[in-house]
Specification:
The protein is of the alpha+beta class. The chain has a single domain, classed as 3-Layer(aba) Sandwich (Cytidine Deaminase, domain 2). Helices cover 29% and strands 22% of the residues.
């Protein structure tokens, strides 16, 4: 799967978001080491704190489908989904909590996961490794000294 294909899957997923409060729809596509792709979208809630990010939604499905230890790449895209296509010009990066969840998958697999951060229109794309987005993250590897 090309970068453009993975970003397109994230953009399509964003159109399925439930974002009536922020009107900012985010989609995420997670690709396994075997090329399988699952997607997720953000879901807001009137009790704002109980919303769910697209990345966590997609990672949950990835765990159920092929396992977090098989995550190879992730694409995230977000913007205005009020039309027939996702719109927006700013690349979207995962929030801090989502970065932590991606780090968990990376430490389980031993792979510094690639993250494609795209604008809603898909024209702006920034490439990151999870180690660059959360360089001193706390994950499974941090617990090796636990009893």
């Amino acid at each position: 799967m090309t970068d453009a294909d993975l970003i397109a899957a994230a953009r399509t997923a964003a159109l399925k978001a439930y974002a009536p409060y922020s009107n900012f729809s985010v989609g995420c596509a997670v690709e396994s080491v075997d090329g399988e792709v699952v997607t997720g979208a953000n879901m807001e809630n009137a009790c704002y704190r109980l919303g769910l990010c697209a990345e966590v939604s997609a990672l949950t499905l990835a765990q159920a489908t092929f396992g977090l230890d098989k995550v190879a790449r992730i694409a995230v895209a977000g913007g205005d989904a009020s039309g027939t296509a996702l719109a927006g010009t700013n690349a979207v990066t995962p929030c801090g909590g989502c970065r932590q969840s991606i780090l968990e998958a990376a430490q389980l697999s031993g792979v510094d996961i690639d993250i494609l951060c795209a604008s809603g229109d898909g024209q702006t794309v920034k490439h990151y490794k999870i180690s660059a987005l959360i360089p001193h993250g706390f994950g499974p590897a941090s617990l090796k000294d636990a009893g």
